């Protein structure tokens, strides 16, 4: 090793429009790459030393592997330090960001591109293959073959949480309405219509109690970030989102039939505590201003309020009901619109979440969804059966 | 960040038998995991804080993604620090090892399991899907559809190298004969028959000048490593392979039609120079004792002698002919048997290479292929169109 650990900042980033896109996997990569470099005028492809790609199933959605070098080619990057793709299902984007941060922190390189991408909407003739692929995210042999695609599984979590803690159908719908309303003013979001609580409850019942609007979308999209060491960052930008902490945890019982609880995610708590500890955050409810958490389904965000350590177990429903996760609440949660509003192109979500926190810090988001002067942020992803949780903390002030 | 960068050592590892196995993807994971913990009696699943999995196409070969948490479940590991899978095609195992090393070096954790795995031989009814998958490793839309699977592409490299540098058919065959002879005494190897130069040349002509024995196999297999920070390593073991350097490089023209040369791999030179620089290796030919390099085809190893900086460009053929890569030569190259002898379960190869260097250091390999008292080693992988090269250096002595 050639250096001590160092401060690392996000200094730029870019986004494709997310949705059902008339665009290939390669098109999305190029669009996000261009947006990222356009946003970071003092950094070009020639400055990038390391490339960290988050993408889940290009083997099935795009019939391609070895995708990180393809990103290098499409964006004109000669990597001379580190390159790979990272897969952790729905947390793949954050996992790529984590490795880029580590590589810079440990002194292996100074400038990295993180790019998350997924192309999920395929031509109709490929659709059965793509649909079957989503069962692969769970343990295919135990869970997938028994119909445990995501919606029925998270519906069971909702049922159990409602049973144990008197969480209400309305509280679930309030999460969806909040996030979809944020997304309505996010130009990059897949779903850009304001939605009321009643409209959520009246939407098509998919897997009770979850209706269509309680579920995130099937989305094509990509997003990119430029990360730099403190020394380099000072040369190119006055503004950055500094990475202050990181945590991950995975329960050894990943298959649904091995999980000890359907209503609690202790790995979220473990991951968050690690990140808070590294960041020096003693009271997250007091100190966090903005959080992008993994609302793959409306119930998820409620469990996360609790298991990320913001309120007592069982109090998550009341947290949304009391408006404490609104833009002007205790913590502004998912001002981007979350997965419910933006959609969820698997490998891109974590990257987009981090970019949102940076954009909130620098005040470049649409005014309707700007959090008032945020200084401290968090991103969170769960993956698979929610036996795995990933958390990072970000700060506007250099640590 | 909580620590300065630290020394990291490989303290144990294990291997499945490689070959056409009557074993599932999950079976291979469990077999390699058990072998790894059996080899490291003072470390159990409960000690593992981070899990780094290398695997390329489980989506196509095993119809599964989110595979790192599946490994955690199968081996009984509760990860409480870091987890993800890494994909860089044929270099995926080394990429996972690199991230584990970085995570420990940067102070995120003390004990990691690295596991590489690929199940490539499928039941006959799935074989077309598996075969098609190998074209995915190249750029499918440019190269794969034009028949540029690996054998014809590396045959072109051989033709060009023979044309430019008078490399001979016999020299290619000498590489294959050397490595297959090493593999003959490696209990884990897929191919365990000694093969002569004449037998290589007389084997089935696959893509001229490459014959069957010039090509690595289609292999099921897995391998694991335990990595520890210096502080922890001292507690559990007197022996380790210390990671001293690392380099990667990727040319922006990944598609074969964009490569500037068919006979030189400048990215191998860039990657090796980075690793040598970090490791303080001034004269690799003098200082390296053992090297596991990516002999996916016999021609590859000849190009690598040159582009890893051991001999002048064009002198690779003479290097094998003069016996300088034999066990008692200047550098013992592929004493494990290489990809030609061991087979090449994509995500497992880099992990197995690092384990071999450690086993050579501690003198636990079969005596027929033991290198005399090696102190310094190297592992090398190429991936895709060989536009990407990955190198790590290892030392028996703590840096």
From TrEMBL, chains A, B:
Keyword NADP: no
InterPro entries: Thiolase (IPR002155), Thiolase-like (IPR016039), Thiolase_C_2 (IPR055140), Thiolase_N (IPR020616)
Taxonomic superkingdom: Archaea
Keyword Ubl conjugation found: no
Single biological process term from Gene Ontology: isoprenoid biosynthetic process
Domain Thiolase C-terminal: 255-396
The entry's keywords: Isoprene biosynthesis, Transferase
GO molecular function terms listed in the Swiss-Prot or TrEMBL record: acyltransferase activity, transferring groups other than amino-acyl groups
Gene3D superfamilies found in the cross-reference section: 3.40.47.10
Domain (Thiolase N-terminal) ranges: 8-231
Pfam family, any one: Thiolase_N
Record's protein name: Acetyl-CoA C-acetyltransferase
Origin species: Halobellus clavatus
Upper taxonomic lineage: Archaea, Methanobacteriati, Methanobacteriota, Stenosarchaea group, Halobacteria
